[in-house]
Amino acid sequence: MTPRRLLLAGALGVAALLFVGLAFVPLMFGAGQFLFSGGVGGNCVNVSEAGAQPAAANDAKAVPVTYLALYQAAGKKYGIPWNVLAGIGKVETDHGRSTQPGVSSGENYAGAGGPMQFLAATFKAFAVDGNKDGKKDRYDPADAIPSAAAYLKHNGAPSRMKTAIFQYNHSWDYVDLVLDWAKRYVGGDFKIVQANGIDCADNELPANVGELVKKMIAFALAQRGKPYVFGANGPDAWDCSSLVQAAYRQVGLNIPRTTFEQWPFGVKVGKGKEQPGDLVFFNSGPGTGADNPGHVGMVIGKGKMIVASCSSCVPAIGVKSYKRSDWVGVTRPLARPDFKKKVSDLAVQQPAD
């Protein structure tokens, strides 16, 4: 197969309408119901077993022993079913046994090389020193196989496995062939996860989150499935800063529109002390820096944020980890004195039970 990889690679609009005017609704309105029954989580996909490692079947005996061990080790480390890695290795080079150009040395006509058929630039971006020998060699299966696992992970595996395999080689016939081999290696009883919607675990909030923060997060979660458009202000599309601005606006709190304005607006919080509803900032995008971050998301908890990432990201708006290398810092708008007073005033407006 000829790899054609890139280097780096249903809408819930009605839910947004449910939250219009929440600034004027008593704060104890049942946001928890929206989060934990129906609503956002109604069509979620359980991906908890997406990275499970199935047992090898008889057909796996045809895989060279050294390659089988490498597939299984990389699968376990990166949470990718090992048999999918084996399927890719089989389709690409018959587990390194192909005599075609670009397998043991050199490149094929598309510029791919090694047992997992990496383009040089792609391998450079995702290379893993699997055998800890101080080198990253795309012709060495000990490096190439875990690098393939890392690349699949980057592209959405294991929760969006078909998407990740398609990114490996832009052909749906290729995807089907890889998965056919993956099934054979484990005796046929194997189903991958292709979660194009919402991960059920992403709807969970830590205990003791206040109703006001629940409402903000619930609004932001309800925007999943909508596109990222730079400069958009909703309700059909958002960018990173307009999404968090709108989430705060739902509870009657106004924060600035752009990331550059939002960064100095909230009270700075040390990393590791962030709470749900806090804003997390990143040194990402043109004109940004460690003291001038250009990307923002909102903390949900457990190391995750709800964020409008980019137009080509999958998902464009979704729940992702904020513990990244470009993470600059955290702010807490709710700790501002004027916001504290506003929250108190809103709480007073609540009718007695």
UniProtKB/TrEMBL annotation:
Name of the molecule in the record: CHAP domain-containing protein
A Pfam family annotated for this UniProt entry: SLT_2
Family: Belongs to the peptidase C40 family.
GO biological process entries: proteolysis
Residues spanning the signal sequence: none
Keywords: Hydrolase, Protease, Thiol protease
GO MF term set: cysteine-type peptidase activity
Superkingdom field: Bacteria
Segments forming domain NlpC/P60: 210-334
UniProt lineage: Bacteria, Bacillati, Actinomycetota, Actinomycetes, Streptosporangiales
